[in-house]
Design brief:
By secondary structure, the chain is α+β, with helices and mostly antiparallel strands. It has 11 helices and 12 strands. The strands form 3 sheets. A 5-stranded antiparallel β-sheet has the order 2-1-5-4-3. Strands 7-9-10-12-11 form a 5-stranded mixed β-sheet.
Length: 400
């Protein structure tokens, strides 16, 4: 035996001690040492009497050193490891259960679940932290912008931090205050302009109408006409309503009554050339507040084109329509002088913001849109009677 062969000789006790270091309590394991020259089988330490060599390796002569096989012995899954010494021509078989291999994996799985749970907790904490730091403040800011977009300028965000969102909140509050102040300033300016336009409209009493009325009074007085007293009474009521400096709003019944007064004056001037038909004002809208002088200019315009500029007998009607969205006062005439070109020009004039004209129909249209919104105002169309159809549309539920 050479020196190298001597190094390859491993004492049998060393083999047993090597494998027994892996043995665990109550686990079936053991070994067989086989002399391949004489087929002598030596059962090793820890062998179970029910474990046979044939169960571990049917043809153990063909096994080589380092072979690992898998067997099912007595219902238990086993791994079989072979170590062969060519010098001694001996084979050592060591068998041990599958559980012996997977014992370290149990700890691995435990730590895997521990780290997985820790990772989930960290992600949950990070998500909550991110939500409170970014998402929640952003939602508050977006929600406040939504209030401003809907027209609520009383919204304010409480600033309780000095980070970037605190700076944004301060900027938002400052912006809302500035916008609110600017809108209030613009609105007040529009109201002042509206009142100035009303005063201008009041001052634009047609001298022609006044002169003709005075001449008619003079004629009635000379002729001893019985209509002199009611006519002067109507004329006095008319100018009293026109020139008074009361509130810019009044009940609709008073505005309609003034329109009736104007119509009766015109009828007494031209009894044979004019017919005026007033529909009864519905009781449910009599007391709603409306701007002053929104009906008489419409009747005045109808009278001008239905009576003064035509030879046929003029017909002017006023009626009322109401639904859940608007109250409509419709004035129509049978004038014959309204061409398609004139009608189109009138319609464009209502929405011409560059036009500085503030009398008549334009004045009424602008005032109604300022008070009730852009969906309200005047609508100009051709009447079924041939003349102009003016629809005055306002919101009866609006507070003015």
């Amino acid at each position: 035996m050479t020196q190298n062969d001597a190094h390859r000789c491993i004492p049998i006790g060393a083999w047993h001690d090597y494998f027994d270091t892996f043995q665990i309590d109550n686990v079936l394991s053991g070994s067989f040492l086989i002399d391949l020259t004489h087929d002598i089988i030596i059962s090793g330490k820890g062998n179970d009497a029910n474990v046979r060599l044939q169960d571990l390796a049917g043809n153990y002569h063909e096994l080589k050193s380092g072979n690992v096989t898998y067997s099912n012995i007595n219902g238990q899954k086993m791994y079989v490891v072979s170590v062969k010494s060519d010098y001694l021509n001996m084979l050592l078989l060591r068998y041990f259960p599958q559980e012996l291999i997977f014992v370290p994996l149990r700890d691995f799985y435990i730590w895997l679940w521990v780290f997985t749970g820790a990772g989930v907790m960290i992600m949950l904490f990070y998500s909550i932290y991110t939500y409170n730091l970014i998402h929640k403040p952003m939602r508050k800011l977006v929600g406040s912008y939504g209030h401003v977009e809907s027209g609520n300028f009383n919204v304010s965000i409480h600033v309780n931090s000095k980070n970037e969102f605190g700076y944004l909140y301060q900027g938002f509050n400052s912006m809302v205050q500035n916008v609110s102040a600017f809108i209030e300033q613009v609105y007040k300016q529009k109201v002042l302009n509206q009142r100035a336009e009303l005063k201008q409209l009041q001052s634009q009493i047609s001298p022609h109408f006044l002169y003709n009325s005075l001449f008619l009074i003079n004629t009635m007085a000379k002729l001893g006409d019985d209509n002199l007293t009611p006519f002067t009474k109507l004329l006095g009521d008319y100018f009293q309503f026109i020139t008074r400096n009361a509130s810019d709003f009044l009940p609709l019944r008073e505005e309609v009554e003034h329109a009736r007064t104007y119509s009766e004056i015109q009828f007494m001037r031209f009894p044979s050339r004019l017919t005026i038909q007033f529909e009864d004002l519905p009781d449910e809208v009599k007391e709603i507040q409306v701007p002053r002088l929104i009906l008489q200019p419409i009747l005045e315009n109808a009278f001008k084109y239905a009576v003064e500029q035509t030879k046929v007998k003029g017909l002017i009607t006023m009626r009322f329509q109401q639904d859940d969205h608007a109250l409509r006062i419709i004035v129509e005439d049978n004038g014959t002088d309204l061409s398609e070109f004139k009608l189109s020009a009138l319609q464009k004039l209502l929405y011409d913001t560059s036009n500085i004209e503030t009398s008549g129909l334009i004045n009424i249209h602008r005032r109604l849109r300022l008070i009730y919104g852009d969906e309200h105002g005047l609508i100009l169309e051709r009447s079924a009677m041939g003349g102009l159809k003016v629809t005055l549309q306002l919101d009866p539920k609006a507070s003015v």
